[in-house]
């Protein structure tokens, strides 16, 4: 029998808003994938933007190891949140578990996401249309929010999406 109180708080609207803000305000995230050759986790920094429904999107090169990994296994995690002054662990952060869905270049979704991405990252115009580049939607499965000291939450995909 475990009489220890849970360190997790009940997810409330403040936690949902903080989690969405961490994703929406981020210009980049740390993307974790599973290396298909070794089975080890691999982490890269990626630029992010948000699709209309609140799912993060990334633009990646087919030459990168993280793109090759996502093509073999769509499971991924993304870490959002920037440390500020002082203890980096005292600042809010969100770990998103997701399924990466590649966006086909000739789809309506591609056109929508391309526009959103360029709005967020205008300098990506230099390479966004290179043939080896593609978009992935990071479809949320769930997330772990550390909202600051003593403020830990587990969020569902519904908590994160703009439905």
From TrEMBL:
Phylogenetic placement of the source organism: Bacteria, Pseudomonadati, Pseudomonadota, Alphaproteobacteria, Hyphomicrobiales
Domain CREG-like beta-barrel, first and last residues per copy: 12-157
Protein name according to UniProt: HugZ family protein
GO cellular component: cytoplasm
Pfam families linked: CREG_beta-barrel
Organism of provenance: Rhizobium tropici
InterPro entries assigned: CREG_beta-barrel, HutZ, Split_barrel_FMN-bd
